[in-house]
Amino acid sequence: MPGPGLTHIDADGRARMVDVSDKADTHRQAVARGRLCMGPDTLRLALSGEGRKGDVRAVAEIAGVMAAKRTSDLIPMCHPLLLSSVKVTIEPTEDGSGLTATATVKTRGPTGVEMEALTAVSAALLTLYDMLKAVDRGMTLADIQLVDKTGGASGDWARP
After folding, report:
1. Annotated binding site, which residues?
2. Which of 30, 80, 121, 137 can pair with 113 through a Cys bridge, CB separation 3.0 to 4.6 Å?
3. Annotated binding-site positions for substrate
4. What is residue 109's DSSP assignment?
5. 39-51 residue pLDDT tens
6. How many CA atoms lie within 13 A of 95 on its CB side?
């Protein structure tokens, strides 16, 4: 038998997509964030937008938006959602150790958008890694996490 909260497992122990057909549509939003740690020369190149691959931050932001829209194709049991807004930003970390990707995803639907926000951040950071790896193969993806979510039956949540 599944434990409390493990809703993707049925009474027979089989994986299933959760039935959300009886849930009300509500406004939902999720924010996720992650970092790509890199050397100072790589960071300068990424911020300049003048590397051989152009403005890597702009490309990574687009990749994050595209990934959010395809989350149900990437994550098993994830519901396909009509997203009303996806915003991905790539900015330098506060300590200068790399770049931070932040994704804000919104919908009006029966289930949340946490997975879409996390997928957007992951794809944006992986895109940055791919475009900068020729300069710095030692980069590290770190701290990909949900920052907050609002809406839905479970209410609001924010990382302390």
Report:
1. 77-79, 115-116
2. 30
3. 77-79, 115-116
4. E
5. 999 999 999 988 7
6. 6
Of the candidates 65, 145, 134, 160, the residue with the CA atom closest to the CA atom of residue 100 = 145
Per-residue model confidence as pLDDT tens digits over 51-79 = 788 899 999 999 999 999 999 999 988 88
Determine contact, residues 116/124, Cβ cutoff 8 Å: no
Tokens in use for 38?
A: 């890199």
pTM for this predicted structure: 0.89
SS3 state at 38: coil
Check if the beta carbon of residue 122 is closer than 8 Å to that of residue 19.
Answer: no
Catalytic residue among 130, 143, 148, 156, which? 130
Query: Strands across the sheet with 98-109, in order?
Result: 83-92, 98-109, 26-37, 140-150, 157-158
User: 18: helix, coil or strand?
Assistant: coil
